[in-house]
């Protein structure tokens, strides 16, 4: 660059010399013209000095702006550093808390392990003691029974023998006595006979009549024979008695043998029982060992899981710290690069200013250059390069040569425009002096203030350093916010609802948007797994609550014929998948609403007369849990408090045990599973007072009841007056004490007809909306379709070409809107719904917002909701500026032509 400057100076000196010689040879008239040109040049010099002063003043102003901007950058840097320091200290604090929590968990784990081991030892000892006690009791009982049997057998044998002995002795003694008596009588008779014989002999000898003696002897013989026959009869009786005693003795022996057999059988049974007890003891001991091994394994696995979770937590904290430090470094680097860019830009501005100053000074020296001493006239002009004044002091000799001597060939248009964009304008080459003097071209054109490049006013462009800094700053800000959210989830677990937000089960927060997260065919897939993936998308789209399908075991796969209420492994997935899905919803700040069927329940068994009215599972109810006026299931409870559902046994909610069991089940769903609220199925079947009791016991964040019955029709057409229909829904809500909201079936039915150019149906005689929304908006859940009315059932489908209009109505009006899964993911109107949700959010529309209807006729419908939103349905021409009653400035937020339009107050 220095060589180029030297060459440039030599060339300039040579040219000055040649020109001086030319000026001396000029004529007098040319000198006059030269003086005139010199005076003009002096005037231009004064203008140049004025412009230079202005430029210096602007430079001072830009310098002050630069210092101010540098100070602002340094202040921002200090603020960022302080924020990062506070974030770092917060990280260290949370890390310390996590370490302390780790130590506490480890100590708790050690204590739990010790407790488990001690418990296992105690269980083993208790089992051993119980086994010993049971075995000893059984053995003692068996021994006592055997000894009792032996004693009984011995006593029986002894009694039998004693009886036989006594009987025999008595018989023999009686026989002996009778024999003695008989012998005595016989001896007496013989003695008498002898005496008679003696007397007969004496008589005979004494000449006594022998015939009398013989007769007396014969009579005595007859008496003796009678005594002998008596003795023989007694002997026969004694023989019979002896035979009977022998028979008794044989029976006693048989009984003794049977007793001995029973004793032997008892001994065998005792041995078998001892063997069985020993086997059972071994099995119980083995089971206790396996249980202890299982407890030990579970303790080891739990310890591993806790240590793994703690390591993962520690790794996440380390990653968060690394991310914070990386964020800090990135931010510092970004600020340093930005400061360097600012410094470079300031240096460029200074160099540009210096260049302009050099150009001005050079122009001044050339214009004010003094005339040589041998020249008579004081005023002279120096023409350089054919009348062109040299103003360029760039170091690039090629550009200088090109600009001074002109192009060697024609310059392309793109190159000429490029040269004009990076270099100031120069006057064209002049052919002669008169043309140069008469030209209006200014010798020096300085750029205006707004044209001078400034980094403070430069707009970001793709590829610029500034836009890279902006993008980097946005990335750092996103990382910081993600880090803050992660810290908040770690420090405030389970607190998904701000403390200042008051929740009511009938309204929730008042700004809920419910998403029905299933249709009639969802059970055919692993639904809980698919639904968990969509949690972040639903949260970002503006949903606040997710309505889950029925979670219980059911006869029908869709879940609306429940059997065992505590079995939560359903067609939609397992219990673990359900819990994981709910946890994912909670991580995205979404409420999980469980679909609970309380009106009816399917039985597990048949009664003796073949009726299915015996329930199983944990809630093993009988016919007393079924209403008595259910015609199909022979219930023995009280009459129903609502309509009968004929497909399953209707539960009698007037029974105390039924209500107690249902409240315990709802609390288990809340506390153990994680549900935040309820969607109550077929609430027409039982009184709303029971619903109030269940809601007060389970304390849900939000509750919706399905009270669906037919609207009023006349000759096949929908009646305009639907007050009776919405009154029935309001009566049910009132029976719950306002603790539950209800689906606004009235509004759905009216929208079916109103959106077909019958918008007059959307206003009642009092100027309010015609559904439940018009009477009790905070308890009205507006919807267009659900799994019953739409999906593959299609009992009451909403007109598909009017879905956008229908959602435009319910999403901009009070109440709690419900969006159906099929419409959001399958019908191609997702962008329409998210746009309407954003309009509702920006306008601050909630369940209690006021509604003022301006127009409702065949051509269209116009209403103001709250103070900040106006919407129009229909094809008639209207905007807020045409309404005299609407003040303020309104901006059109959504424009769908003749379908609907939405304005927001600016």
Structure notes:
The structure is a single chain. The protein is an alpha/beta fold and 906 residues long. 58% of the residues lie in helices and 8% in strands. The protein has 18 helices and 17 strands. The strands form 4 sheets. The protein has an 8-stranded parallel β-barrel with strand order 1-2-3-6-7-10-11-12, surrounded by 4 helices. Strands 13-14-15-17-16 form a 5-stranded antiparallel sheet, covered by helices on one side. The chain is elongated, with a radius of gyration of 59 Å. The model is unreliable at 1-9, 11-21, 370-397, 423-427, 441-446, 452-460 and 489-501 (pLDDT under 50).
Overview features:
906 residues; alpha/beta; elongated; 5-stranded antiparallel beta sheet; 17 strands; disordered N terminus; 8-stranded parallel beta barrel; 18 helices
Q: In a nutshell, what does this entry contain?
A:
The chain has 906 residues and is an alpha/beta fold. It has helices at residues 2-24, 28-205, 210-367, 397-405, 413-422, 433-438, 465-491, 527-533, 535-541, 575-587, 656-673, 688-698, 723-735, 745-754, 772-775, 803-812, 821-825, 830-843, and strands at residues 514-516, 545-547, 591-596, 605-606, 612-614, 677-680, 702-705, 713-714, 717-718, 741-743, 780-782, 816-820, 851-856, 860-865, 869-874, 890-895, 900-905.
